[in-house]
Amino acid sequence: MHDKYMLLATCKDKVGITSLITSTIAQYNSNILHLDHFTEYDNKNDTEGNLYLRFEFEKVDGVKAALETELASHNITYELFDSSVKTKIALFVSKEDHAFNEVLLRVQREEIPAEIVCVVSNHENNRHFAESFNIPFYYVPSNEEKPVVEQKILDICAKHDTELIVLAKYMQILSDNFVNHYEHKIINIHHSFLPSFIGANPYKQAWERGVKLVGATGHYVTSDLDEGPIIDQDVIRINHRYNVQDLRKTGRHVESQVLAQAVEYHVLHKVIVTTGNKTIVFA
Amino acid sequence: MHDKYMLLATCKDKVGITSLITSTIAQYNSNILHLDHFTEYDNKNDTEGNLYLRFEFEKVDGVKAALETELASHNITYELFDSSVKTKIALFVSKEDHAFNEVLLRVQREEIPAEIVCVVSNHENNRHFAESFNIPFYYVPSNEEKPVVEQKILDICAKHDTELIVLAKYMQILSDNFVNHYEHKIINIHHSFLPSFIGANPYKQAWERGVKLVGATGHYVTSDLDEGPIIDQDVIRINHRYNVQDLRKTGRHVESQVLAQAVEYHVLHKVIVTTGNKTIVFA
Amino acid sequence: MHDKYMLLATCKDKVGITSLITSTIAQYNSNILHLDHFTEYDNKNDTEGNLYLRFEFEKVDGVKAALETELASHNITYELFDSSVKTKIALFVSKEDHAFNEVLLRVQREEIPAEIVCVVSNHENNRHFAESFNIPFYYVPSNEEKPVVEQKILDICAKHDTELIVLAKYMQILSDNFVNHYEHKIINIHHSFLPSFIGANPYKQAWERGVKLVGATGHYVTSDLDEGPIIDQDVIRINHRYNVQDLRKTGRHVESQVLAQAVEYHVLHKVIVTTGNKTIVFA
Amino acid sequence: MHDKYMLLATCKDKVGITSLITSTIAQYNSNILHLDHFTEYDNKNDTEGNLYLRFEFEKVDGVKAALETELASHNITYELFDSSVKTKIALFVSKEDHAFNEVLLRVQREEIPAEIVCVVSNHENNRHFAESFNIPFYYVPSNEEKPVVEQKILDICAKHDTELIVLAKYMQILSDNFVNHYEHKIINIHHSFLPSFIGANPYKQAWERGVKLVGATGHYVTSDLDEGPIIDQDVIRINHRYNVQDLRKTGRHVESQVLAQAVEYHVLHKVIVTTGNKTIVFA
């Protein structure tokens, strides 16, 4: 494959935007490899919509600068990525290792084209696994004031030029301050049920309710919401023979798969967070 | 296939129950075709469990009476069904016809081995479909006091010896009094999402939240809970291109399938409601 | 929603095609509502690829004619549809009614935005259902020479300006001659298993082999292949308790859902058949 | 949980077998925790069926010996397991590590209650991972005559008292002689598609055919069949944007999950292979 650029762009929908971008790309003789164009209008109000765009196009001299000028002059919010540059991930984990193992191994196998630059944990038990792949492991216990702990972690992330934080069952709540440093750049996984169970011990609640599906939701972390924009979800079917431990085990399996998938979508630059706080995933 | 009996039985778990039942059946030279035996102990307390049993065994002279005597003398709650006798269903529907059509057609095709004895609706629009299959259709509008309306419906159900009421998108809330007449004999379907959305216009809420799965839950209706014991659940994957109408459409598809499946499980006598208000489905 | 045009276009991939189309549309002040752009290169040979495009854009005076001139002059294969015009479907069915019912009812509910212009069958049993919706039903028995029978059917289809033939369990093999009249305009459904079973009684074979999933494939019918381009597939999980009849029943359920979905994709003009005889489904 | 016994039993179906077993267990005051009873009659011939039984019951002094005497005297084929004794697994792997990693990590997390006694590989690349968990790793290259190589491997397996061989993408074909040493004690995983593709490069074939689902089948290895009894299957949905590499990646994900699930079913003694060469999985 040739090197390519990936463009994610958002603006108020109006006539001519896509024509503008495609003609700029064409002027530089760069071929468009993929293009997803999605407009969303509020259900009630048909007059004001948003346009979400994703392009993959050949890396040709000059096209990037020209495009950036064009996008800026039209007030289009965008991110532009080079396919040869891998996203730098800081992987956060507490004790449970399932989601952590899955993400780390998929990156190792190059199934997720990213680089894990460090592992941060409030437990020591996953050090060995991380270090066996020569990934720096930072033990940051939660025994100090949260601002102190979080500053240490922010320093570690900064030191490694972290671009994405993946919470692979990191069981500490991040402060608004922390989250604001990485807006829409922190991915988390949590259990999901139909119907959902809020509060302590959701698997126990789900077992008592006799649910037939166990699910997981991968989402961005935001400061002002319990849950941020959903990236991916999946379920596994269970039956009455599953006890609470079996539900937890099944939950781990679906969590691992969904988190890894969500991370893959992100590092392939397939996700746009909308103004309405949900995601467009050009899967 | 030979005619057979189906037995659903529940009691406190103790040594010897299954031995007792199987030896009684064997004494009459009746062969057991299926046997599901499930014990459930509370997670905390290991000393007191419940036993749930389902048997299918050949219909042989004398075995039924002997078994009933045995079960009664040991304080076992049970239901005993004859496979040659079809469950009589009253199908309730409002305007939307998707779940109604699906259940009715599966019964017509003998995919669900039951008999639809009547259709009850607060709208006229589904009369034609019901009557084209020679099923009595009762229009019972909701323009009177609820007790009056419900008494009319109870009379209709009684007249047709109704054994199971299926709410195929019947958009009227049934009173406790009504529900108590058909304990664990009313099946309903409702939408389900991960995470779930309570209140008005759940599909709009789900769309705004950007969910990636649309689901449905088939359950028994109970008087003292918002939702009774879950019989079956399923989901269909969606993406950001689905607008609110598309979500509703997808919801209808999964609702139809799940309701029909739940009804099938019930009329095959595969479902036991536990003391803990959930179901054991020997699927 | 405003009326809109849908464009499906295919050509050799080269720089500038999308720019050309989008700028033509923009010139007429028509807004693009959706745009899917997909290029596919042979895995080995990176130099020659194909471009597949789907546009939805506002219906504005003049844009259609201008676009058609442009597309023709650049040797682009295309189809251009008006969203206000429904696809005319001839629904073919033999005895089994499940897929036939599902497609017909989804069209009635406007879940599938199409018009069923006639039903053709080699059996009489589905006449009543079709006619209860005022759809013309043609009984064309298979007791004559195939060319004679097929000519009758072609005449019926022509009389109703049929644009799409849906084989909803129509158990007659269509000749190459017939298929050539409706290239990529005939959709069929067939069972699918992992692993697949060829020859007589596939459900018996699947049962003997103990498969855990029952599937279905919706595809276009082509003359030169056993199976044409796949539009959609799905599976339902089963277990050892399912006998051969249960497998058939499950097969019917998944067939109905997959066929209806495939038809919906087609009439929403979301499917392009590639030169390599597979489909691009912009789902 | 108390220790318990698991019994898998198979015999010609006749009246009284389950009564016999349950009364023997009850005599020793052992409580039955689970009981699955399944009879299967040939579809055509109703007179000769097979009975498949699975019991879990409390480990009480004397019950095991009494039961074994009883089972033997009635010509019942059986296996009796003690829940406190973990199955000893030899894990075979070639170069690709995904299924190997998944099974090994699930065993480490005690999600699969088994013991991996050794890893056998014809490549060195997975040595580090195995040894980091203190599991003996044997490099047995394929550069000698197959009988010589296989004898080495059989010796390794014997040395470790191997009870189950798991082929986690072990890309060597095992001889009939080898397979006969471990009848229904070797589990393999292979890709599955609807429709299936035989021969070289199935993912390329599947891509060319435009399949919409990628699947995997976990099965026992037998000498006289291409594929032995199926234990589990699953699929993942894909779309036209997946190239051949993406199909392979998706195939790896579903292979890992299905293999791990199949191994779990086996070591929980939930699988019986029937005389008809398929499985009963009491899942």
TrEMBL record, chains A, B, C, D:
Q: Which residues form the signal peptide?
A: none
What is a GO molecular function of this protein? Answer: formyltetrahydrofolate deformylase activity
Has UniProt tagged this entry with the keyword Metal-binding? no
EC number(s) per UniProt?
3.5.1.10
UniProt-listed PROSITE patterns: ACT (PS51671)
> What processes in GO biological process is this protein linked to?
'de novo' IMP biosynthetic process; one-carbon metabolic process
Which InterPro entries does the protein's record reference?
A: ACT-like_dom_sf (IPR045865), ACT_dom (IPR002912), Formyl_transf_N (IPR002376), Formyl_transf_N_sf (IPR036477), PurU (IPR004810)
Give the ACT domain ranges: 6-83
Q: Which key words are in the record?
A: Hydrolase, One-carbon metabolism
**Protein name (database record):** Formyltetrahydrofolate deformylase
User: What is the species listed in this Swiss-Prot or TrEMBL entry?
Assistant: Staphylococcus arlettae
Q: What is the lineage of its organism?
A: Bacteria, Bacillati, Bacillota, Bacilli, Bacillales
